[in-house]
């Protein structure tokens, strides 16, 4: 960033992006901040929940972003992406759940909306910039030998967001700046307090959505059978969109042993249940691949693999099957490998690549 000083700052109204903006302003960069508007206000969140990225608190977040920008002296714009978010994230989320899969909307939002449509709209509105910054906890490093931009884990591993950024392309990564990548959350809070930012004590967003995620699925529930692995009917379900692999609560099944959702059979509209041991799998296929550290995978690699954001990565052999599919085989079986989820491949703190879990091999 030595020779360019115009930065497009993606502001969420939270403490992280606010501190990132303040740090860049202090370093002398010319900043225009943009906050996206995505909530259509068409559903009722219902019940108590943590603050989500998508929900009725959006107006408060936009106002918080505006107040921070006014205080630190940078221009602020709101970009309406309601239609784009609906068609790109919510419709995708809806379709995946109705086919028995469990998607990660945040990975898709980062790829298509935050670092996609939002940037495009800012350009359309005449905003000029050299770099794009956000409050994500991750690092980007250019590797001269490969001439590729690497995505790396944040210094604060408890806040690392590299998993959620794993679908970003080289074209996107080469313009991104993450000012918080080498900081801890405690440091960020301290800086926000020292600068008396109005969001210094604001809680972090915890969920994709405020309230029950099913409230954004625009489809009537289609009740069906809950069956065991032999096909024996054990109960009834309210609709497959209310269930995900590994789920234990809310099944309404009486059993001497704890039972879990082990599979979702969308074709027959069945939810399959079993014991915890039935949820451990060693092998699965990943499609919709995005390679970051390498151009493509041409031979098997031993990497550390995550199968969801909260999963502790585990060692596995990743083998190419075709240009858009790899087979992942863990050294040790892992719990609840779930079709639709994002799987990310790491070598140390470097994101090698990732994709979407497509199918899971049955236990022997």
Protein topology:
Layout: E1 6-10, H1 15-26, E2 30-37, E3 52-54, H2 58-72, E4 75-80, H3 82-98, H4 105-124, E5 131-133, E6 139-143, E7 148-152, H5 170-173, E8 176-177, H6 185-194, E9 207-209, E10 224-227, E11 233-237, E12 260-265, E13 270-274, E14 280-291, E15 301-306, E16 314-322, E17 325-335, E18 342-347, E19 350-360
Parallel strand pairs: 1-2, 1-5, 2-4, 3-9, 5-8, 10-13
Antiparallel strand pairs: 6-7, 10-11, 12-13, 14-17, 14-19, 15-16, 15-18, 16-17, 18-19
What features would you describe in this structure?
There is one protein chain. With 364 residues, the protein is of the alpha/beta class. The protein has six helices and 19 strands. The chain has helices at residues 15-26, 58-72, 82-98, 105-124, 170-173, 185-194; strands at 6-10, 30-37, 52-54, 75-80, 131-133, 139-143, 148-152, 176-177, 207-209, 224-227, 233-237, 260-265, 270-274, 280-291, 301-306, 314-322, 325-335, 342-347, 350-360. A six-stranded antiparallel beta barrel has the order 14-17-16-15-18-19. It has a five-stranded parallel beta sheet with strand order 4-2-1-5-8. Strand 10 (224-227) and strand 11 (233-237) form a beta hairpin. The longest helix has 20 residues, at 105-124. The protein is globular, with a radius of gyration of 22 Å. The termini are far apart. The model has no long low-confidence stretch (mean pLDDT 92).
